[in-house]
């Protein structure tokens, strides 16, 4: 078996690359493998690999040399995510605006295009920057906590790398497009839709973007990001049903957003069910760790 195909080595590389910029991930990986090859005997065993990985210590410490000092409020991978969200949200806003014009052209004629575009641009920037900044703070806290804790090779089994499919990106863009369309719909509404309703819709939009940002930043299916997504999807569905029952018309954009949240719930449930054995073994390791700690005390 090649060294890179070994499960522990692969998981170490995952943690090493987890928060560093995309353009430095390959270099960090190659440097790590070169060091590991030099330290291992010509014919190595499983125990040799475990021993050397323990000697190398926490992968976050190794990754420190490849992290950017910062780009205004963000650094490393979260800065890359911020730029990606600027593109995704900009395209989604354009799609949402086009769909709105196509369906509500008469209403659009009576509004100021500059005011609408200004609102969309401000939303795109805030929804790109603020969630990435929050994830940056969480990342910094997690790394500091991990560096302070005693390093154990069992930590490498805590997470599994997230593989994001093309259809998942498409699903996100459909949902974000409908949120932008809903924003324009409220801003141009001839009937009275309160500022509180508009603010609540934008808060829903924000927490949906934030939950996706968590997923991209953590890059794992086994973290609290999965539970955050569950909460956001369920909360969004209930909230939008309530809004359309009492505070605004049932426009088709809301129905599509609800459908996207339902599909995401199903996809997440499928992902968890596929990895049930890994989750069970993770719980077992945590119990054993707690038991060993009690025995030492």
TrEMBL record:
<protein>
    <recommendedName>
        <fullName>DUF1700 domain-containing protein</fullName>
    </recommendedName>
</protein>
<feature type="transmembrane region" description="Helical">
    <location>
        <begin position="193"/>
        <end position="214"/>
    </location>
</feature>
<feature type="transmembrane region" description="Helical">
    <location>
        <begin position="116"/>
        <end position="135"/>
    </location>
</feature>
<keyword id="KW-0472">Membrane</keyword>
<feature type="transmembrane region" description="Helical">
    <location>
        <begin position="252"/>
        <end position="273"/>
    </location>
</feature>
<feature type="transmembrane region" description="Helical">
    <location>
        <begin position="166"/>
        <end position="187"/>
    </location>
</feature>
<feature type="transmembrane region" description="Helical">
    <location>
        <begin position="226"/>
        <end position="246"/>
    </location>
</feature>
<feature type="transmembrane region" description="Helical">
    <location>
        <begin position="84"/>
        <end position="104"/>
    </location>
</feature>
<keyword id="KW-0812">Transmembrane</keyword>
<keyword id="KW-1133">Transmembrane helix</keyword>
């Amino acid at each position: 078996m090649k060294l890179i195909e070994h499960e522990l080595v692969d998981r170490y590389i995952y943690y090493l690359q987890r928060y560093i910029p995309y353009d430095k991930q390959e270099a960090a990986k190659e440097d790590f493998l070169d060091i590991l090859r030099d330290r291992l005997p010509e014919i190595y065993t499983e125990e040799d690999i475990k021993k050397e990985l323990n000697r190398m210590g926490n992968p976050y410490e190794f990754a420190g040399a490849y992290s950017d000092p910062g780009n205004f409020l963000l650094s490393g991978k979260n800065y890359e995510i911020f730029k990606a969200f600027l593109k995704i949200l900009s395209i989604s806003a354009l799609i949402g605006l086009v769909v709105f014009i196509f369906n509500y052209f008469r209403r659009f004629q009576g509004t100021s295009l500059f005011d609408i575009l200004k609102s969309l641009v401000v939303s795109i920037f805030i929804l790109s920057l603020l969630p990435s900044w929050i994830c940056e703070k969480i990342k910094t806290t997690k790394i500091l906590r991990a560096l302070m804790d005693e390093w154990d090779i069992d930590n490498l089994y805590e997470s599994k790398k997230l593989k994001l499919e093309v259809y998942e990106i498409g699903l996100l863009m459909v949902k974000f497009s409908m949120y932008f369309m809903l924003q324009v719909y409220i801003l141009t509404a001839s009937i009275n839709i309160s500022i509180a309703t508009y603010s609540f819709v934008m808060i829903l939009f924000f927490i949906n973007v934030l939950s996706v940002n968590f997923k991209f930043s953590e890059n794992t299916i086994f973290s609290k990001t999965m539970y955050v997504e569950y909460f956001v999807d369920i909360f969004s569905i209930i909230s939008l049903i309530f809004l359309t029952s009492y505070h605004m018309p049932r426009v088709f954009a809301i129905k599509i957003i609800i459908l996207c949240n339902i599909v995401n719930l199903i996809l997440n449930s499928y992902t968890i069910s596929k990895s049930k054995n890994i989750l069970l073994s993770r719980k077992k390791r945590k119990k054993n760790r707690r038991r060993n700690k009690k025995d030492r005390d």
